[in-house]
């Protein structure tokens, strides 16, 4: 499939699965006019995951691209953000003068980014600057397709329920992280979100679930509430709903947190180096 973007050469669009994701070639994110951007935004809303290979971007160019989707979100933890670019978070196993350049082995476990905030992020973008030749894949699960495939009776049981999120409870379990400061705690109170949310652009319903910061189901005592959520995650991340992205240097991959779960995977960090820039676009209150 191609999009006619005359006078530019047509964009090449290749679906990545029957349900989720599209690869788009023929676009330079550092030189993007409004007409081509509109097509990219449409593809993002429809397909949920967009892969844009072959990019060469400075931090300024990456930030400028992200800002076209909306205001950028900063991470709660700032020690691994890029100097002069607090919106760009570094994922890396590189070191400089014995100091890590970024967070390593982060994002393992099915989740949506910053779901513990009142306004979870809309979009996340990763720019692969240095990628291992094997391992380190990113997996995406289609929460709209998972919702659509549920029996109607199960949908009726779930629609209207709310999930409880706690960044503070989750961080308290992380032996590899320093305790949160009082300022960080004040910025991350516990929140509840609908278990089923409606996409504002497409009107499709999606499961809005995950692991990590999710600690229960409102109105259902634990461990039963957590068990229900975990069973839904297991169901929705089954093979029928999952897309695997294998990284190539120069890839920009962006996904819609409103309809997907994602997880990173491990790689042999004794053999390979990885250096990735991550950026997030602010979202709205799930409805």
TrEMBL record:
The lineage of its organism: Bacteria, Pseudomonadati, Pseudomonadota, Alphaproteobacteria, Rhodobacterales. One of its GO terms (biological process) is sulfur compound metabolic process. GO terms for molecular function: metal ion binding; taurine dioxygenase activity. It comes from Celeribacter indicus. InterPro entries: AtsK-like, TauD-like_sf, TauD/TfdA-like. Keywords: Dioxygenase, Iron, Metal-binding, Oxidoreductase. Residues 13-280 form the TauD/TfdA-like domain. GO terms for cellular component: cytoplasm. Belongs to the TfdA dioxygenase family. It comes from the Bacteria. This is Taurine catabolism dioxygenase TauD/TfdA. The keyword Metal-binding applies.
């Amino acid at each position: 499939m191609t999009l006619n973007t005359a006078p530019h050469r047509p964009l090449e669009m290749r679906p990545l699965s029957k349900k989720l994701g599209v690869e788009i070639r023929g676009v330079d994110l550092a030189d993007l006019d409004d007409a081509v951007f509109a097509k990219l935004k449409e593809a993002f809303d429809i397909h949920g995951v967009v892969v844009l290979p072959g990019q060469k971007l400075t931090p300024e160019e990456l930030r400028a691209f992200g800002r076209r989707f909306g205001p950028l979100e900063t991470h709660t933890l700032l020690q691994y953000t890029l100097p002069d670019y607090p919106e760009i978070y570094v994922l890396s196993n590189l070191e400089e003068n014995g100091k890590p350049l970024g967070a390593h082995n982060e994002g393992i476990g099915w989740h949506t980014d910053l779901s513990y905030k009142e306004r979870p992020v809309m979009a996340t973008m990763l720019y692969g600057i240095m990628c291992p030749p094997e391992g380190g894949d990113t997996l995406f699960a289609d929460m709209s397709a998972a919702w659509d495939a549920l029996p109607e009776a199960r949908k009726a049981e779930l629609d209207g329920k709310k999930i409880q999120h706690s960044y503070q409870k989750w961080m308290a379990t992380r032996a590899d992280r320093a305790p949160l400061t009082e300022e960080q705690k004040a910025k991350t109170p516990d929140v509840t979100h609908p278990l089923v949310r409606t996409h504002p652009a497409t009107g499709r319903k999606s499961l809005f679930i995950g692991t990590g910061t999710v600690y229960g189901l409102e109105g259902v005592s634990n461990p039963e509430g957590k068990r229900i959520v975990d069973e839904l995650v297991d169901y929705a991340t089954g093979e029928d709903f999952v897309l695997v992205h294998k990284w190539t240097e120069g890839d920009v991959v962006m996904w819609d947190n409103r309809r997907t779960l994602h997880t990173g995977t491990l790689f042999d960090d004794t053999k390979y180096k990885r250096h990735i820039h991550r950026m997030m676009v602010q979202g709205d209150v799930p409805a």
